[in-house]
Model the fold of this input.
Amino acid sequence: MTSYPNLNEKIRINFFSGPKKRNSKSTSQIMCAHIGSLVWDGFNGVGPEKDHRVQCSQCGKRFGTDLEMWNLLSYQQKIKKILYELFILKYPLTGVAIRWEIKEQKLSQFKKSFVSQIFQQNSEVIEQKLKALPRGVILGDETYMGSRGNSNAEIVFINNIYQTLSTGPVDEGDLKESILKAFEKIPEACRKKLKILITDGEPSYKSIAKKFGSKVIHVAQLHNKDQRGEIIISKFKKLGPHFLHYKIYTHWKAFYRDKHELKFQWEIKFIKGKVQPKRGRPRNADKVQDKNAQWRQKLENYQSSSFKKEGTAKIYVNFKSNKLSMRKGAKKWIIHLLTPIFKIFKGTHITTNKMESKHSQIKRSGAGRKQRDKEYGHKLFTLHAFLVEYGYIPFTNLAGRPLYNFLMKNIKKKKIGYTILEGKRILVQTHLSGYE
Done:
């Protein structure tokens, strides 16, 4: 028998204070129990077979024909248990439909509608929550909603303590733009603290490091079969409209053990930018001879034959003092690039394992299957990411009474009235209070 610990804390829904008008959406966060507040609200049908409708005089909720209070409370508990099985226990939808004797198609429609209502009422809570950024580290990666090769992919960014910062769907054929969109969803106060970006070898992540310039160190772990275990540590430095790309090639065990001396290759690449030509006669300010002299001089130095653009270097690694010292071929920029990485990965492998672990937490069994609706698949993935961290569904007003005919079909019709709860007793109150 399935148990539901902390059911009301984990599934925070309410359908009592729903829409006052048909097909309208309510975002009210006020619970209404309706006890002692139900009134007659006209009739359904005509002639001797006509039945009373019931309405709450406090919140305006209408309950249709001869719906009793106890039935509504029992129905809500059943809905909560179904949602608990689908989202907390992550049972397959087919099994839940069989257990509750609901058509699988109807349960699937209900699940999709419920996820849409959660995001309609709680999108800021789920997607725009400000989180800490320990050591300024952000990890980014893509994952497939189902098996590898599935076209519905998600981009995920997390911090160094496994908290999800943002997620975003991948637009087919435009991975770079999708990565930037997902990154920009992170609150600005968090993005500004970025110092180290850790990703796999996907080249599109360079656009983030390039945008932040020399402030950000980019660590890329290569996963190709012939490059497995190789690491590229790099940063971009603005040079007028151009960039210098500083790169260090090493391996994932560089700081795993106290080897004292570490040898690696390095490279400095020049990335040419667009110099926008100006039209018309030059202004007096444009005739100043030393305009942009600083970056032009650096460019000339780089292009000269005496400037070394690649080579090998050695550094001394001291595990006791947590310091790196220059040895043969090393330069100051190399020490500045490697020191923050050494402090994070000292005694461990330089990997994206935290990111892979996060993917497994979110998808688990049944949660990450391919969805035909791409937008719904993204919302479902993001909701599961929220549940992994917080363990509950945000408060949501459920519109209407979905699945009522399936869950309450064995309830026998009782005399007109509604029930109230007093302790453990069930009382039928046939008198409805009127308007005063």
The chain has twelve helices and 17 strands. Confidence is low (pLDDT under 50) at residues 18-29, 414-421, 430-436.
